[in-house]
Design a protein that fits this description.
It is a single chain. The chain has 2 domains: 219 residues, Rossmann fold (3-Layer(aba) Sandwich); 113 residues, no CATH class. Helix 1 packs antiparallel against helix 2, helix 4 crosses helix 5 and helix 5 packs antiparallel against helix 6. It is 27% helix and 30% strand. The protein is α+β, with helices and mostly antiparallel strands and 363 residues long. The strands form 4 sheets. Strands 2-1-4-5-6-7 form a 6-stranded antiparallel β-sheet.
Length: 363
């Protein structure tokens, strides 16, 4: 589990240490920096996979990552502190990125291990390079930290356009894990249907609970090209016609992706999602919130960013991190249950947010 993250010089975040728990719900007004916080994980993930420069170029170059631009900032520092299942801080991963030639170079990449005496033992692994090969290092502290870094992914199921990867055919063998954009959704569900039927049925039943027209999936290899598969389903009362992902509403398609992610037999140990409520009916948001809570109770760390009052109403103050802007910089505040006890006796979390009692509003 990530127990805290330190961020310096990244986008709207000048200098913040954000404590994290098993369940983390990030709220705030438009443009305060919620998505910037989520994109820290995307940056580190791309660095870890050896695709840092492609990611930087795709996102507008190095200047778009620096706090205040390169006239104010020329370095980014990110540090993850990891703890084990009994909340003992044991490992760290930290990297300094330096701007130059519209790129972000890895100035220094290091790890740390907390010994039995409470002292940190740090080790530098890479310096002054464009791309990291840290994921390939299997010795010393890197062995343990690698196992932690590969366990988180940032999921974006936002693209439900006509050209969405979720709506196209995918390779039937592309089923090792659900991809972050849902592009192999059909192949992954087909794998669950064959190898984990109980989990597959649970996914179908959960979808039925918010989509009364949905009966079940029809998942089979394409008859003309058995190497490919497409998401198909049956409508209740209309069993002579097959429908595909193009016949699903945007919200229903996103809900299918989210349900599959959360109810698969071996979900990632750290799940990060930006605005999972997009296009969802309040009932679907409530069901999704219960799934988030259940996963966190099962040992999965959940980090979500939201603008949904309905979603926030399902969580407690101690689950909530409020993002605000102060002096042109994003600040994060984890709420304290005891400090809000008098308020929560009368109001829901969503009402406290609306009334600006807990911050996170544009006024």
């Amino acid at each position: 589990m990530i127990s805290s993250i330190e961020i310096k010089g990244f986008k709207s975040i000048r200098n913040q240490i954000v404590p994290l728990k098993q369940l983390n719900v990030l709220i705030g007004g438009n443009g305060v920096g919620k998505s910037n916080f989520i994109s820290v994980f995307s940056l580190v993930r791309n660095l870890y996979e050896g695709s840092l420069q492609n990611y930087v170029i795709k996102k507008g170059g190095s200047n778009s990552f620096l706090y205040g631009g390169n006239k104010i900032t020329n370095e980014i520092f990110i540090k993850f502190i990891f703890s084990n299942q009994i909340d003992e801080v044991i490992n760290s991963f930290f990297v300094t990125l330096e701007s130059g030639a519209n790129k972000l170079f890895i100035k220094k990449l290091s790890t740390g291990f907390k010994g039995l005496n409470g002292h940190w033992h740090e080790k530098d692994f890479e310096q002054n390079i464009e791309e990291s090969a840290f994921s390939k290092i299997k010795e010393s502290q890197a062995y343990y930290v690698n196992n932690l870094l590969k366990e988180f992914e940032v999921y974006h199921f936002h693209d439900t356009s006509d050209n969405s990867p979720m709506k196209r055919f995918s390779s039937i063998n592309d089923n090792r894990f659900l991809k972050k954009d849902g592009s192999n959704l059909a192949a992954f569900l087909y794998y669950l249907k064959l190898k984990h039927p109980k989990h597959f049925l649970r996914i179908e039943r959960t979808i039925c609970s918010i989509a009364p027209f949905f009966d079940k999936f029809i998942l089979e290899p394409n008859r003309l090209n058995p190497e490919n598969i497409q998401l198909e389903w049956l409508e209740k009362g209309n069993y002579e016609s097959f429908f595909n992902a193009n016949n699903l509403s945007d919200g229903t398609l996103r809900f299918i992706c989210l349900t599959t992610l959360l109810l698969q037999p071996t979900p990632p140990k750290i799940i990060i999602i930006d605005e999972p409520e997009l296009g969802l009916h309040p009932l679907a948001i409530n069901i999704l919130s219960e799934l988030f809570k259940k996963k966190s109770q099962e040992g999965i760390q959940v980090i979500i960013s939201t603008q949904s009052i309905t979603l926030l109403n399902n969580f407690e103050p101690e689950d909530t991190i409020v993002a605000d802007r102060k002096e042109n910089s994003t600040i994060f505040n984890r709420l304290n249950k005891n400090e809000l006890e008098a308020w929560t006796e009368q109001y829901s979390m969503g009402e406290l947010w609306e009334k600006n009692i807990i911050g996170g509003q544009p006024f």
